[in-house]
Specification:
Elements: H1 5-23, H2 27-42, H3 46-68, E1 81-92, E2 95-103, E3 106-107, E4 115-120, E5 131-141, H4 153-159, E6 162-176, H5 181-193, H6 199-207, H7 215-223, H8 234-257, H9 268-286, H10 291-308, H11 315-329, H12 337-355, H13 365-388, E7 390-392, H14 395-423, H15 429-448, E8 453-455, H16 461-476, H17 485-497, E9 501-507, E10 516-520, E11 523-527, E12 532-533, E13 537-538, H18 539-550, E14 554-559, H19 565-568, H20 571-578, H21 584-587, E15 599-602, E16 606-612, E17 626-630, E18 635-638, H22 644-658, E19 662-664, H23 676-682, E20 686-689, H24 702-710, E21 714-717, H25 718-721, E22 724-729, E23 732-737, H26 738-741
Parallel strand pairs: 4-6, 11-14, 18-19, 19-20, 20-21
Antiparallel strand pairs: 1-2, 1-5, 2-3, 2-4, 5-6, 7-8, 9-10, 9-22, 10-11, 12-13, 15-16, 16-17, 17-18, 22-23
Length: 747
Amino acid sequence: MKPYTSILFGCGFCVGCLITVFFYEHWQFYSSLLFLLVVAHYFKPFWLLLLGFILAIFSVSVHYWLFYKQPELEEEQLQAVSIEARIEKTFSDDYLRIRLTKIAEESLPWYRQVFANVALKDTTNKLESGLYVKALAKLNPYRSRKNFDSFDGELYAFTQKLHYKGQLTQIQSFSTAKANVITVYRQWLWQNLDGYQLSWLYYTLLSGDKSQISAENKQRMQQLGLSHMLAISGLHVGIVYALGFYMSQCCCFFASLFGVRYSQLNDLNRYYAFAGLTFSILYVLLSGLAVSALRALLMLSVLVIAYFFARQIINYRVLLFALCGVLLVDPFSVLNPGLYFSFIAVYCIFSFVRMSANKINAKHFATQLILLQLILGVLLAPLSSYYFYGISVSSLITNIVFIPLLTFLLLPALALLLISFLCGFTFNWFALIDEAIFVILKQLTELLLDAGWLKTQPFAWQYLVIFYLSILLFTHCKVWRAIAMIPIVMGITNAISEPQIKWQIDVIDVGHGTAVLITVGKQALLYDLGAKYFDRFSIFERVVKPYLEANNLQLSQVILSHQDNDHVGGINELLAYIGSRPLNVFHNGKTHTSCNIIQTKFAQILTVESLWPSHVMSSDNNNSCVVKVSDGHYSLLLTGDIERIAEQLLVKQASSKLSSDILLVPHHGSNTSSSNEFISAVHPQIAIYSRSYYSIWHLPHPKVVERYNQASVTQLDTALEGQIRIKVTKSGLLIGSARKSHQFWFL
C-alpha cells in the first residue's frame, strides 16, 4: 500500500463528514460528489478520496437514524402522552430536564438518548435529579428563537439530543432511579469539592462537566483566554498520562526495594506506557467523552500502539487519524466549535515543533514558549472572533501563567486530593493551593479582564474557511505556494462586490412580542423591547442586547409602542444597559408615556415620524405608537397592537402618510386588526408578522392572511423565518432571514 493511501482516504472521510452534515440537500453537497466522481474517473488516486467521502455519507446517515433522529409523535400525542423518564437536571422547582425512556407504549432502546425540557404543572412533590417518573405530558418538538449573530438554541439542542419541550401535566408515580457510574462519580466529587473557592474549576477539570460553572465565571475565563482549561483536552489527558506513567514507574521502583526482580527481556517502559494509557482512558470516560478529550485519547492511543510495535508515525498523520476516529465515533461533532479549536491548536503546535525541531533548547525555552503562544493566538483569533465576537489579547499572559500551574501543580495536586478523598483523609493542605490559585486568578481578572478582550464584528463563515485554507495551502504546497492566494483573492473579490447598504431593518425573532431594529451604519433605533417572563427572563437582555453588542451598535433612540409586557418587558434591563437617554426624543426620557407626535431625522438619512396616537383611547392596544420610517424612496410602517378602531381613525386622519413599502402587521396578525381599508391605505409590498411558533392565540388569523393574499402582499413570519433582515440598497430591497440563511437538513 502506498504511503499516501491512508492520507487520501482520511481526507476524503473528514471532508465528506463536513459537507454531508452542513450541506446535505444543498448544491454544495451534490456538486462536491459530482466533482469527485468525474475526477476519480480520470485520476485513480482520487478514488480514495471518493471512497472516504462515501463512507462519510454512510456514517452520518447511520448516526442520524440511530442516535439523533427525533422520535415522531402522533398529532394526538402532542396534546397528552404517557411517558416514563429519568430526571437529569433541575433548573428550578418547576422546570426540569428529563431523559425519556418510554413514550406512550414504545420503549426507547438503551442507546437512544432523548431529552426534554419540561415545566411542572403541580409543584407539590419536589422532584430532584436521579428520580424516575411516570407521568402524563404535553410535548412539542423543540423550537427556539432564531436570530443572526446570536446563540443558535436549536442547533445546540440537536447536539445535546434535546428533542422536546413541554409540560408534565400529571405525575403518576416517581421512584429513585439507578444512577450510572459517571453520575455517581460526579455527585460524589461535587460533594467533596463544594467548600473550595474555585470548586467549579476543580470539578470541571476532574469530571469534564461544566454544569457547575456560572455564566459569569464562564465569560471571565473566555475573556481571559482560558476557556480551553474548562474543556478536557490534550493538555489534561497528557498530564494524566504522565501521572500514570511515573506513578507506575514509582510502584515498580518500590517493589524492587522489597525484592521484586524484573527480567531484562521485559521492556518496562511498555508497562509504564500501558498504565499511563489506562489512566487516560479512565479519565476520558469519566469526563463524558468530550470531543477534545476523545481527540487527545485517540492521538495518544495511536502513539502508544506505534511505540509498542516500534513504528514511526508522522505527526500530521497522527492528527488526521485522530480526527477520523472522532468523526467515526460521532460525525455530528463537526457542529461543536471545540473540535475546531482543539485540532487547529494541535496542528499549530505540531507545525511549530517541526519547524523548530533543531532549535528547541532549555536556554531559549521561555522565548520559544512565548513565540508559540503568539502563533496560537494569531491562528485561533479568527475562530474566536467568529464564535465569540471577540479576541482575547490577554491570553498570552494568562496562558504563560496558568499552563505551567495546571501542568506542574494543579492537576497533580487534584490527583492527590482525589486519592485522599478515596482514602478518607481530611487534611487541609489543598486549601493553600486553592487560595493561591484564587488570588492569582483574581489579580489577572482585575488587571486584564477589561483591557484584554478585543471586540470584533460578525462575519460570514466563508471568510473563516478562506483563512484556514490559505494557511493550509501555504504550509504544505511548498512548490506552488502562490496557490494559497487563490482563496484570498476570491474572498476579497466577494467582499468588494457586495452592494452598499443605505440602511437596514431587522425584525428580531423574540417569540410573541416585538423588537424591530433600524440601523444606519452603527447608529440604531429600536422599536419595542420584547417580553419578560417569570420576572427573570428578559428578551431584551438575552436576545436584543447581545445582538447590539456583537455588531457594536450604538442605541441612539428607543420607541415604546405601548405598555404591554410583550412590547416593553425589558424596560428595566434597557435602563440598566444604557439609561433613559434613548427615550428622550419620543418619550421625554420617561418609560410609561405614549410617544410624542413628532417628526425627526435619524442618522441624517431617515425621516422618523410618529403618526399615532393623536389622542388617548380607552384601549391600551389602540394607544400604540404608530411610526413611519422613510428615506424618501423606501419606507417602513410600525404599528404596535392597534386594532380596527384605531386603524379607521388613522386612515381618516393620515391616509396620505400611511403608504409604505414594508408593514409590521398590527397586533401580530390578530383578526381584530388589519382591516381591508387599512391594508389598502398602506398598500405594502411586504407584511411582517412578529409572533411565536407555538402561539396559544393561533396567530396569524387565517382571515388576516387571506386579506393580505387578496392584496397581493408578500408575507413574512418570524415564527417561520426567524429574524427577518431587509437591507435597503440603491438597487432595491435585499430580504434575508435567519432560518433560510442556512437550513440544516436535520432540523
